[in-house]
Design a protein that fits this description.
37% of the residues lie in helices and 28% in strands. The protein is α/β, with parallel strands linked by helices.
């Protein structure tokens, strides 16, 4: 599977490492599994590392559906941070659209980065602290 999720409850961080060619169904299924996991804490910050993945098969409609899924499943209380780290311009564009779609409806602050160290700093984690 091109999406590996690690949850560090002590560090307050979820790390999703994506690689290979992503499909909407894989992203959707990963999110569904995450939300139903007993380890899921909505207050936990998240890092989505998309640097080694291709989003070529993800459409604008898929981005809308993912944002809708996330906004519909997030609890109303608490605010967490979600960092998306990308390396290619096309991925940056899709991630920014996702960020904008969630801006007014999600209870998470979403931000797109090109540098993982900068993302971890924004999440309150040092690179040596990340799982």
């Amino acid at each position: 599977m091109p999406i590996d999720t690690r949850i560090d409850p002590d560090g307050g961080l979820r790390v999703h490492s994506l690689n290979g060619r992503l499909q909407f169904e894989e992203v959707r299924d990963t999110l569904e599994e995450l939300y139903s996991s007993p380890d899921f804490d909505p207050a936990m910050n998240a890092l989505w590392d998309v640097r080694d993945a291709s989003t070529a098969d993800i459409s604008l409609e898929d981005v809308r559906k993912i944002a809708q899924l996330v906004s519909g499943r997030r609890p109303k209380e608490g605010l967490s941070r979600v960092a998306l780290v990308v390396s290619r311009d096309v991925d940056f564009g899709l991630a920014r659209m996702y960020e904008m779609k969630l801006e007014d409806v999600a209870h998470s602050e979403v931000r797109v980065f090109r540098d993982i160290e900068e993302a971890l700093t924004w999440l309150g984690q040092g690179l040596e602290e990340a799982p």
